[in-house]
Amino acid sequence: MKKVLVVMTGGTIGSRSQGTAIDVDAAFGYELLRRYEEEYGKQAEFTVIQPFTLLSENLLPQDWTRLRRAVDESGPAGYDGIVITHGSDTLAYSAAAISYSFADSPIPILITASNYPLDDPRSEGVRNFAACIAMILHDPLPGVFVVFEDRKRTLVHLGTRIRQSQPFTDRIVSIHDEPFGEIEEGRLRLHPSPYNPEPAQLRRFEQRQSLELPAGASFGDILYLTPYPGFRYSYLKVRDMERKPHAVLIDLYHSGTTGVRFASPEDSLERFASECREAGIHLYAAPMNRQEGSLYASSHVFIDYGIQPLGGISVEAALVKLMFAYGIYADDQHTDQKAIENLLKQNLFFEIAAARQ
After folding, report:
1. 310 — phi, psi (to 5°)?
2. Any idea what the CATH number is for the domain that residue 283 is in?
3. Angle at 32 between CA 27 and CA 35, to 5 degrees
4. Which of 184, 207, 230 corresponds to the end of one domain?
5. Distance CA 295, CA 339 (A)
């Protein structure tokens, strides 16, 4: 019988409904295994760890370090697969962090969640967990994946490709709207696509590089901005900041653009970018389908301001990658910007997808 490490971190899939409140319950997390075995039988031998139990909106970057340490201390080489249960609110960020941390994993690491607590009849939590176990039993590709039901289809996404859960519908989608595959009748059916890697690429796990912060280091400080019509960069007084971020990430509109027209020079992106350069703060922008060729005029303008676009990557995966990069290569005395730029160019776990033509 195959051995599976189950890592419970809370979230809705580990929560209980109590009146009008939904909150995590560490003991209730085991209800998932009970319900799974009641419905599907004993398909695998489970070992359970709980590095933390919280609603995922309360997650902090240091929790990713706690999760990695807990998995490492459990001896992942002794298991055929790992299932991580997580909340859906910050799933895209954690999936990216776990993908970077375990990019060279020789076994499948499957992350799943639920939109409703297990004691709610609408919950898909047990079905999502069952799909994870089926993939470990029958189609154990190395790497990190997110498994989640979407309108009666159980989709499998690459861990670095998902966007935040969509409001109102709660859907999880991959960039290019191209999941890696889906679980049908207990088996993985791939979605062939020019944007997805082939199974042979996934099996070359020994060629991939995992990221780990140096001992005692913390994730880099990244200021993440989502501009909108009328956004005033003058609200961000760079010169007055007592603690300055290592870098700024600007969330772009779907066409790879951001506004470069402002009511006054004081509110402008140009001025903000100049102040950041003077303070040694680097600026990045994502998502962007392509970085060259036919770009909108406003895209050329912000690039001229010294803002570096990160092409082919979701803004969630870009943010977490920047947090790793500056955590590894920057401290209070020195920033190795060349090493950071080299890391950003690397495709650690398929986070950089080909441009859609």
Report:
1. -105, 105
2. 3.40.50.40
3. 120
4. 207
5. 28
Q: At what angle do helices 91-101 and 315-329 cross, to 10 degrees?
A: 50
Give me the half-sphere count of Cα atoms (radius 13 Å) on the Cβ side of residue 87: 20
Q: Is residue 302 part of a domain?
A: yes
Q: Do the bridges between strand 143-150 and strand 308-311 make them parallel or antiparallel, or are there none, so unpaired?
A: unpaired
Instruction: Report the alpha-carbon distance of residue 302 to residue 271 in Å, rounded.
Output: 11
Alpha helices by DSSP H, listed for the chain, are 31-40, 61-73, 91-101, 125-138, 199-203, 269-278, 297-304, 315-329, 337-345
Indicate which residues carry an active-site annotation: 12
Do 29 and 49 meet the contact criterion of CB atoms below 8 Å apart?
no
Q: Which of 307, 295, 240 is nearest to 268 (CA)?
A: 307
User: Which tokens in the block code for residue 167?
Assistant: 């409001």
132 within domain boundaries: yes
**Same structural domain for residues 175 and 230?**
no
Q: Which of 140, 114, 270 is nearest to 202 (CA)?
A: 140
Residue pLDDT, tens place only, 53-93: 999 999 999 999 999 999 999 999 999 999 999 999 999 99
Sole residue written with tokens 């697969």: 81
CA distance 86 to 109: 13
CB contact set of 242 (below 8 Å; sequence gap of 6+)? none
φ and ψ at residue 27, rounded to 5 degrees: -70, -35
Q: Residue 52: which domain range?
A: 3-207
**Residue/partner pairs of 167-171 with CB below 8 Å, 24 or more apart:** 170/88, 170/115
Helix (H) or strand (E) holding 97: helix 91-101
How does DSSP assign 128-193, residue by residue? Answer: HHHHHHHHHHH---SEEEEEEEETTEEEEEETTTBPPPPTTT----BGGG--SEEEETTEEEE---
Phi/psi at 83 (5° precision):
-120, 125
Is the entire prediction scored with pTM above 0.85? yes
pLDDT tens per residue across span 128-163: 999 999 999 999 999 999 999 998 899 999 999 999
Using DSSP's 3-state secondary structure scheme, residue 213 falls into coil
Within 206-314, where are the H helices?
269-278, 297-304
